[in-house]
Amino acid sequence: MPTAYTPGLTISPAALMRKARRLPIKGEVLVNVGDAVAADTVVARALRPGPIRAVKVAETLGIEPHEIGRYLTKQVGDPVAESEVIAQSKSLFGLVTMACRSPYAGTVEFISELTGHLAVRGAPTPLQVRAYVKGRVIEVIPEEGVVVETQGALVQGIFGVAGERVGEVAVLAQAPDQVVDESAIGEPLAGKVVVGGSAFAEAAIVKAQTVGVAALIAGGITHQSLHALLGYDIGVAITGQEDIATTVIATEGFGILPMARATFDLLCSLQGRQASVNGATQIRAGVVRPEVIVPNGQGTPTEPSQESQVLQVGSRIRLIRAPYFGLLAVVTELPEQPQEIETGARVRVLRARLDGGDEVLVPRANVESIVR
User: How far is CA 65 from CA 14, 23, 55, 56, 115, in A?
Assistant: First the structure.
């Protein structure tokens, strides 16, 4: 029987995970190999240089650019306060004074006799990188960051929005096919990772933002709810940088989709535990999955076996390309020979029966196995 290895989502009560935590620029690492860290432990920090802004000194004083040095009251490296005089000139035997004030606070970066400008660099912005998960530092990347190893439950989703959040797991749904409505969302859920069933109603998602819920996890999310959450339509290539208060993760796909029983049961077993959540999603090359991690430091770590990810007739799969993105199906046929698809390319394909009953023919590269 023809088979093919394909990556899939991981749902595991005891996975071993390593998270690289890096600064975007060179900085200082604050921990050492072997150190235990909490999710909110700052492991590295740096100062991002402030913006440079030019002040038109020569133009303001009405002098030639090359004369700027004669009139400056500040030199390179000097601190400057907002509205402070940085150059001045006198005329009519000293009776009339012209002053140039800096519109910005910062430090004098350079002086140009070619343009007659003085540049002020603003205050640096502090950058901090936190551990994100509770665990232990197993590697230090000099001047950049660390690698943190943790062990615990891992639930990967199909799609998410917004970045990293940490909070206590709170399960609202009584069953994996339940839609959680607005009435279930209240102030006690502020800062928590809230688990639903097949979906959260649109009003519930909007209210969660107001209440300050850290994250919402459900089987699916509708396009309408996603638009209400973000205020705009979103593509499916890369997410994670959305400026919203609540991270949202769909474990099964788009629509109102019952959460897989294994996923739901695992999340229910984590009630009250601290979870690290990230909605960042990248579907194309260098796949990144939204995730829920609950460290525990107990049990034997497991990783999905390659056999569990081999496509065969009867395999449960998820389609990851348009026009079937996010839909679930079961493999019904694995033709041995490549076939021509709509684009004209000849590729290896499979036939699958969607949960709605329709049969589709899709490239094998457009699916992933569902690993439970």
Answer: 68, 40, 12, 9, 5
Query: Could you tell me which residues come within 8 angstroms of residue 45 by beta carbon, excluding any fewer than 6 positions away?
Result: 23, 27, 28, 30, 126, 127, 128, 129
CATH code assigned at 364 = 2.30.30.30
CB 350 within 8 A of CB 311: yes
- The band of 7, judged by pLDDT with boundaries at 50, 70 and 90, is low
> How far is it, in rounded angstroms, from Cα 254 to Cα 41?
35
The CATH number covering residue 79 comes to: 2.40.50
Instruction: Give the three-state DSSP class for 52.
Output: strand
Mark whether 220 and 340 lie in a shared domain: no
- Same structural domain, 253 and 177: yes
Q: What is the DSSP letter of 123?
A: P
Which domain covers residue 360, as residue numbers? 307-370
Max CA pair span of the chain: 100
**Cβ–Cβ under 8 Å, residues 299 and 9:** no
- CA pair distance 323, 123, nearest whole angstrom: 49
Helix ranges restricted to H, the chain: 57-61, 68-71, 202-211, 223-230, 261-269
Note the pLDDT tens digit of each residue in 240-282. 889 999 999 999 888 898 898 889 999 999 999 999 999 999 8
Pairwise CA distance, residues 191 & 211, whole Å: 9
Whose CA is closest to 134, among 47, 229, 43, 235?
43
User: Could you tell me the CA-to-CA distances from 32 to 29, 140, 172, 330 in Å, in that order?
Assistant: 8, 7, 39, 48
Residue 142 lies in a domain: no
In this structure, what token pair is assigned to residue 26? 């060179």
Three-state SS at 260: coil
* Residue 233 and residue 320 in one domain: no
Mean predicted lDDT score pLDDT of the chain: 88
- Based on the domain organization, do 168 and 29 belong to the same domain? yes
Asked if residue 174 and residue 234 are part of one domain, the reply reads: yes
- Structurally, the chain folds into a number of domains equal to 3
Which parts of 231-317 fold into alpha helices (H)? 261-269
Verify that 33 and 86 share a domain, yes or no: no
